[in-house]
Amino acid sequence: MFGQVCQIIERIGLTGFCAGGRYTMLFLPQIKEFESGVAWYGFPYTEGSEIQPDRSASLIDQLDALVLMIHGTRDQYSNVTDICK
């Protein structure tokens, strides 16, 4: 792939971790060019922001793309203050 001079991309997917997983779940139903996605965590029932207030779970009826959601039932939320430890 990287050695090729010209590539034709006919299909595109989306993936994201944590907040990116939430955005993956939000964007897949709304941007039809994405044909599949993988959401690593992302908290589908968490409220958003002023810009994107929807819960990603509320958009599931609009989902046409294939999506793989990866969550751990015993995983704890990451505390931002622990990032630099």
Summarize the structure in words:
The chain has a three-stranded parallel β-sheet with strand order 1-2-3, with helices on one face. It contains one helix and three strands; from the N terminus they run βαββ. The protein has one domain (13-82). The radius of gyration is 15 Å and the shape is globular. With 85 residues, the protein is an alpha/beta fold. α1 (19-30) links the parallel β1 (12-17) and β2 (34-40). It has one helix spanning 19-30; strands at residues 12-17, 34-40, 66-70. 14% of the residues lie in helices and 21% in strands.
Counting DSSP E segments of at least 2 residues, the number of strands comes to 3
Number of domains: 1
Average pLDDT, all residues: 78
Give the number of helices.
1
Please write the string of helix (H) and strand (E) elements: EHEE
Low-confidence stretches: none
Structural class: alpha/beta
Biggest sheet: strand arrangement: 1-2-3
Strand content: 15-25%
| Estimated radius of gyration | 15 Å
Sheet having the most strands = 3 strands, parallel
**Shape summary:** globular
Helix content: 10-25%
Note the gap between the termini: 38 Å
Protein name: Dienelactone hydrolase family protein
Keywords: Hydrolase
GO molecular function, one term: hydrolase activity
Organism: Methanosarcina barkeri 3
